[in-house]
Amino acid sequence: MLHSRKLTSLASVIAIAMAGQAFAYEEAPQLAQQVSAGTLPPLEERLPAEPLVMDVIDGPGEYGGTLRRAILGGGDQHNMVRTIGSDNMVRWSPDWKEVRPNIAKSWDVSDDASKFTFHLREGMKWSDGAPFTADDIMFWYEDIFTNTELTPNKDSTFIGPAGPVKVTKIDDVTVEFDFGAPNGLFLQALAYGFGYHPTAYPKHYLSQFHETYNADIQALVDAEPAAGDWKQLFNLKAGPMDTPLFWQNPDRPTLHAWHLTNAYGATDRVVAERNPYYYKVDSQGQQLPYIDRVTYDQVEDVETILLKAFNGEIDYMLRHIGRPSNKAALTDNAERGKYGFFDVGDLPANIMILMMNLNHTDPMKRDVIGNKDFRIGVSHAMNRQEVIDLLYFGAGSPAQTAPREGSDLYKEEYAKQFTEYDTDLANEYLDKVLPEKDAEGFRLGPDGERFTLVFLVADVFGLQYPDAMELIAGYARDVGLDFQIRTTDRSRLIELHTSNDFDAYLWNCSGGQADAYLTPICYVPTISNSVSWAREWAAWGVDPSTGEEPPQAVKDIFATYAKVRSAGTPEEQKALMQQVLDMAAEEFFTVGMVQNDPVFGIARNNVRNVPDPLPIAGQLWFPAPYTAQMYFEGGANLP
Amino acid sequence: MTAIDPASDVIVPEAVKAPALLGPWALMWRQFRRHKIAHFSLYVVGLVYLVALLGEFFAPADHLATNTRAPFAPPQGIHLFVENGDGSREFLLHARALKVEVDREAMRRHFVEDPEKPIPLGFFVKGHPYKLLWLIPTDRHLFGPIDPKQKVYFLGADRLGRDILSRIIMGTRISMSIGLVGVAVSLVVGVSLGGISGYYGGWIDNLIQRLIEFLRSVPTIPLWMGLAAAIPLDWPPLRTYFVVTIIVSMIGWTTLAREVRGKFLSLRKEDFVVAARLDGLSDWEIIRKHLVPSFASHIIASLTLAVPLMILAETSLSFLGIGLQPPIVSWGTLLKEAQNIRTIIEAPWLLIAPGTTIVIVVLALNFLGDGLRDAADPYAN
Amino acid sequence: MGGFILRRALYMIPTVFLVSIVTFIIIQLPPGDYLDSLAAEMGESGVDNTAVVEQLREQYGLGQPMYLQYWKWMTGILLEGDFGISFEKNLPVTDVIWDRLGWTFAISLLTLLFIWMVALPIGIYSAVRKYSVGDYVATFFGFVGLAVPNFLLALVMMYVAFRYFGQSVGGLVSPEYLDQPWSGAKFVDLLKHIWMPVFVVGTSGAAALIRIMRANLLDELYRPYVVTARAKGMSEFQLLLRYPVRVALNPFISTIGWILPTLVSGEIIVAVVMNLPTTGPLLLRALLVQDMYLAGSLILIVSLLTVIGTLLSDVLLAWVDPRIRYQ
């Protein structure tokens, strides 16, 4: 029994779409030339029957110009993912409040939120002009997602409480995602970055690299020096979007607003040209994107990006440069570079967290860290305001790891408990756990030796963690705790914490806003690449035959969060999530330090339709769904 | 020779008494003193090592102490006179307190010296407690504000409000000792392998030459990076420091070994060596008693020239992020911290101060080595 | 002479072999592998993507024992000229490196020229006019060149170029020429940029060579043959160039081989700061993310060229100075 429950905004969008059809569509002059030269089909044939009418930010724009950015020589694929990559079946509204139609023009949800039926746009095309239909989604589902050789582990977006999704084609423009059990958070998940999968695999192009469709696959494998078998070949051609692979294959058709013509890493500049088949138009019927192309100049050092910005060689960017430490220098050169600032709501649950290992392999350390009094003592010993003043120019507030003020889930006690800087109080709590001290004033562990925690720290996110760690170690020393600092690089740090081979480390954590529902990684023990504070419990949570059985309170958290995922309505989800947060706050898993103020990005003075403030988060790959509606006033870059 | 200080020649009686009996060392010294810049550099280097040894005494502040009021505070001048209310001037060695204005929008602090608020300065003042030479507990410092609660940044402060002068002084200990330890390692390895190679010749020589050739044909940076990345994380910073030192010293010994070998090759045919061998001296005795003294001066010169190379190597390692780690402070880590556009624009002293220090010390060491090399051959002229 | 060359050429083989083994060990020394680096990069989304990492583990043949990987790599190189795959670029190493090697050599050669052009005359002057004001000035600037760390000089010069000349910074050509084919204008633009890295990398080398030239010439200047020639009334300039300078040139020739790895090493840091399309940043990046075949091949090629360079300079030296042949 399917009950149609359309969102109100959806109806209005369709209404505008209908209105849009009343007058003729327009296209970029560049494309019009190609049409008249006969190298491109006319616009009406390229657009779907019902294009998505974008609600632009300032107003309809004009065509022209190149959006110039910079990219690091390696490992910076998210630079492209977050500007031109993320464009999924559904998208988040620019204020990150609701899920809106995108590639799918509408959807129906079953009453129990277990079945999702998506209606695609008739006549929609890939960037090479081939039709995009339900068959492409089925190709992803049948030949990639359920193929255990290609996908040994499945992305969590498409795994519901009862297991992986079942996708069925209803007709050419209708597909059904069936989870077999309530999965109320699925639409949200699909709108986030990793929801890209179903619409990223053009069957007409990729099937030639797939064993099932190409009997003579070996010939292609032999011709490709970087591949040893068909699976390697397929991965090369159809790599995941958040790896370099995706951005190294310009031949792969996409549904993105700009299509890659110069691959990442091949030359000094990555170039993406306008996709003439893009399915979005503005309210005047002008086909998006307005901007002709997007370029990423390859640089080796973040400092060079800054200099380029000062020189006016960057049109729109927040990545790498939007850090408090750069604000003064960027302000000084704003006139020279002809750019201004916009706010970026990069507001995680906490930007600096002492992740102490609750599942330490050493039973002595585990007992101490596992004692809530110890963590409370550590928390009271931290002079958070000094850290904020010294490192972030006062742009932040002392806080625990918790939802941010302004988000639906915010409660003051989550954020503010134990954040008061009070060494006497800290000593009082610590004396309950580690009363003995040695001659130098350091506390002794239960084994009679000095109790030492080695903190791993890497210089990541531009947040000056190594500096912060020196301050933190100083505060710890003041209450008799020996915190040792080991500075390392990001990949080594991740390798150590994911193998549970660590005492403690400094990191940030998502889940400060709406993403708390889907990435509660600091409230519920989760297996994750970025956060480990109870890895063994997390493993148990996934599969009780692995890991280690957690205490009852943690089991309750697992159980309640499972209910959040299966809840059907937003009201139920919120009530249950609040329970999870209540319990997590009571357990006090991690010691948070700072919740930051919004950061910033720069845009040249004639760039319009810039989302301001722009929310971004670990999974919210913004501004990608909204880059297409940006334009240059005057139709060209400022000189 | 106008370069000779006439007074010293007259006053020192030995020089007059028996010039013909001067040993090689005295001859070398006499020659060395003629190289005035080298002579001067000797004192500079001596002073630098003294600073390294007595670091805390010279440092006006605790080099790790942060200050929320002083991030990127500019260098404060030293003033001699204060103006009284009636306009008269009075001698008072002082610095001026900094007034801070905060520009929240641009996230910047403006500092202005306030002539109304002098901070008296003095010598042998009380400051943070420390142990002189790791032994004697004291809290006296050579120079600084008389009131220990006041803070003066003679060379400015870094992003955490730490005193740069104190950090440079404390960094001297690490940087200069890396040079020394590195050279010591080079000396032992270089002289033994070079000596063996040159004295025995034949297949041993061949083997060692190939080894040197091999080591020199691997580009150093990747070699360092690989080795440095292999340092286990749980090592305390001090052990990492020694490993870094040894890695750095690897660049030094090959050159030395080649020089020593060359010397051995040319000397082993000399008459005095042949005579010694005929006298029945063992190889080891010949090397120790005759060969090494005959080119010791050259080795000293080479070593002096190797020290600055190692200091610079350490800065390169730090730049690549694979050298020393905080809280250890070296000149390299100071430069690394200042290696960004923000610093050049907002706080150039963070780059200039350690940069100048490195340049001066490396210059002094090079001049010293140069002078020693010139002097090492006292019979050249 | 032929025997000498042959003997020296034969010595090369074990050296290169050793270099290849040590290179391979060095790049494997740091714990972890490329996929760990990739996982770290992807970790920025804050969610678990071990799914993708596991999917790719097989992709790169990681997890085989080291000697097997070495064997495959070596046989590939020797039999097919195949240096393996760059994990990060997903291209054969040979496709990635030649362009960049070209730039590296162009810059190295220019640097070498720059060094010689500066060091030779100054070194000679410095030796002939020992302890004169000119000598002191030359020595001083020479040592300053030695004393300023390369990366510091690079950053400061870049900032000056940006601040006072309004030049686009980083790279070898301005952004507007990046995609353009070669033209006169692009070449001029290249010249505007390339002198900076050449100067930065060259200063320390030039300073060192000034010192060597001066010292060597000083050794020769007071030899009896010079005195004899002078006594016979030869003009000072002719005398200088004909004999002592020629002898003092030996170290220039013998350093040709060594100078290459020094320049490549010096260039790594400068290229990162100045954003040059050379092997430096590529190598640094490859070492950081453990893109091992790329890193290994780059080190191997540079080492190999060094060994060849050494051979050439030895042969040249033996040809210039026959005494060496029989040592």
UniProtKB/TrEMBL annotation, chain A:
Query: Where does the UniProt entry say this protein principally localizes?
Result: periplasm
Q: Which PANTHER family match?
A: OLIGOPEPTIDE ABC TRANSPORTER, PERIPLASMIC OLIGOPEPTIDE-BINDING PROTEIN, PERIPLASMIC BINDING COMPONENT OF ABC TRANSPORTER
> Is Signal a UniProt keyword of this protein?
yes
| Entry keyword annotation includes Signal | yes
Q: What is this protein called?
A: ABC transporter substrate-binding protein
InterPro entries linked to this entry: SBP_5, SBP_5_dom
Which CDD domains does the UniProt entry name for this protein? PBP2_NikA_DppA_OppA_like_4
Where is the protein localized?
Periplasm
Q: What range does the record give for the signal peptide?
A: 1-24
- Residue spans making up a coiled coil are none
The Solute-binding protein family domain sits at: 98-516
Q: What organism does this protein naturally occur in?
A: Meridianimarinicoccus marinus
Cross-referenced Pfam families: SBP_bac_5
The record's comment on protein family reads: Belongs to the bacterial solute-binding protein 5 family.
Automatic annotation (TrEMBL), chain B:
Q: Which UniProt keywords apply?
A: Membrane, Transmembrane, Transmembrane helix, Transport
Q: Which InterPro entries match?
A: MetI-like, MetI-like_sf, OppC_N
The record's Gene3D superfamilies line, in alphabetical order, gives:
MetI-like
| Family indicated by similarity | Belongs to the binding-protein-dependent transport system permease family.
This protein's membrane topology, according to the annotation, is: Multi-pass membrane protein
Please indicate which superkingdom the organism of origin belongs to: Bacteria
* Parts forming coiled coils: none
Kindly list the places in or outside the cell where this protein is found, as annotated in its UniProt entry.
Answer: Cell membrane
Which organism's genome codes for this protein? Answer: Meridianimarinicoccus marinus
Q: What is this protein called?
A: ABC transporter permease
Q: Which residues cross the membrane?
A: 37-59, 178-202, 239-257, 291-311, 317-335, 347-368
Q: Which residues form the ABC transmembrane type-1 domain?
A: 172-369
Q: What is its main location?
A: membrane
Automatic annotation (TrEMBL), chain C:
What membrane topology term does the record carry? Multi-pass membrane protein
Record keyword Iron present? no
Q: Where in the cell is it found?
A: Cell membrane
Record the organism: Meridianimarinicoccus marinus
Provide the protein name. ABC transporter permease
Q: Transmembrane residues, as ranges?
A: 9-29, 101-124, 136-162, 194-213, 252-274, 294-320
What InterPro entries is this protein classified in?
A: BPD_transp_1_N, MetI-like, MetI-like_sf
Return the SUPFAM superfamilies for the record.
MetI-like (SSF161098)
Q: Which family does it belong to?
A: Belongs to the binding-protein-dependent transport system permease family.
Q: What is the lineage of its organism?
A: Bacteria, Pseudomonadati, Pseudomonadota, Alphaproteobacteria, Rhodobacterales
Extract the Pfam families matched here: BPD_transp_1 (PF00528), BPD_transp_1_N (PF19300)
Query: Could you tell me the keywords of this UniProt record?
Result: Cell membrane, Membrane, Transmembrane, Transmembrane helix, Transport
Q: Where is the ABC transmembrane type-1 domain?
A: 101-317
Lineage: superkingdom: Bacteria
